[in-house]
């Protein structure tokens, strides 16, 4: 069992939650996490870099002059890559770098990522994160009280527009619903911040 303290906005511990490691897979599966990270980064690549090869360059396909008898070196069309304005020899073409993982593997990787944060003390739970109106200064103050000084993914139970607008200008912070969490977003940031209701809801979802 892992004991997770619950803090208020001032950073004081007001409660605690006991979490059974078994519901998150019991152990951190490092090989699966690596596979998930590779997939996550590959899917972010944009494979639109392209250059024109000789078939895409405008120009005649006629041979410039006859093969023999001119005293010149052999020459093909004006599209050849050795001539100015010709096509690129080994032209880049559009390609899809995307990778995929089975649904159960993706979920297990996400559970392992959350478990890894819990084991090293990088998972923080706060009782609530409600704002009457968007206020970045107040959100940054809360992060300071919770000793979150670098990158962090903030997990909430449901859409919270005031929180989203309060956090959108804070560098290194990503706010998402707990059902949308993935291993890539979790592992690419130092800490996780859960609201209490989001964390309890996540535990219930994983159990079922």
Summarize the topology:
Layout: E1 2-7, E2 13-19, H1 30-44, H2 103-119, E3 123-126, H3 136-145, E4 152-156, H4 161-167, E5 173-177, H5 183-187, E6 191-195, H6 196-207
Parallel strand pairs: 1-3, 3-6, 4-5, 4-6
Antiparallel strand pairs: 1-2
Helix pairs in contact: 1-2, 3-4
Structure report:
- The chain is α/β, with parallel strands linked by helices and 208 residues long.
- It has two domains: 153 residues, Ribosomal protein L4/L1 (Ribosomal Protein L4, Chain: A); 51 residues, no CATH class.
- Helices cover 32% and strands 15% of the residues.
- The chain contains six helices and six strands.
- Strands 2-1-3-6-4-5 form a six-stranded mixed β-sheet, sandwiched between helices.
- The model has no long low-confidence stretch (mean pLDDT 90).
What's the helix-strand series? EEHHEHEHEHEH
| Structural Rg | 27 Å
Annotation, overall tally of beta strands: 6
- Please indicate the count of domains: 2
The number of helical segments is 6
Shape: elongated
Mean pLDDT metric: 90
Strand content: 15-25%
The CATH superfamily name of the largest domain is Ribosomal protein L4/L1
- Cα end-to-end separation: 19 Å
The CATH class of the largest domain is Alpha Beta
* Structural classification: alpha/beta
In which range does the helix fraction lie? 25-40%
The fold-level CATH name of the largest domain is: Ribosomal Protein L4, Chain: A
Describe the structure concisely.
The protein has 208 residues and is α/β, with parallel strands linked by helices.
């Amino acid at each position: 069992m892992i004991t997770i303290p619950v803090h208020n906005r001032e950073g004081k511990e007001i409660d605690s939650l006991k979490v059974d490691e078994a519901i998150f897979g019991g152990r951190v599966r490092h090989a699966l996490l690596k596979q998930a990270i590779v997939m996550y980064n590959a899917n972010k690549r944009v494979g639109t870099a392209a250059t024109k090869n000789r078939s895409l360059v405008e120009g005649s396909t006629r041979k410039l002059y006859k093969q023999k008898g001119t005293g010149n070196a052999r020459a093909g069309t004006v599209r050849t890559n050795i001539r100015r304005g010709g096509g690129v020899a080994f032209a880049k073409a559009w390609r899809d770098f995307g990778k995929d993982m089975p649904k159960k593997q993706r979920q297990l990787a996400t559970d392992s990522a959350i478990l890894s944060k819990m084991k090293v003390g990088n998972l923080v739970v706060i009782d609530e994160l409600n704002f009457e109106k968007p206020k970045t200064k107040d959100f940054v103050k809360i992060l300071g009280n919770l000793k979150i000084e670098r990158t962090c993914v903030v997990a909430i139970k449901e859409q919270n527009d005031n929180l989203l607008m309060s956090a959108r200008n804070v560098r290194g912070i990503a706010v998402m619903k707990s059902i949308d969490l993935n291993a890539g977003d979790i592992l690419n940031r130092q800490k996780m911040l859960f609201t209490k209701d989001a964390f309890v809801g996540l535990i219930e979802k994983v159990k079922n």
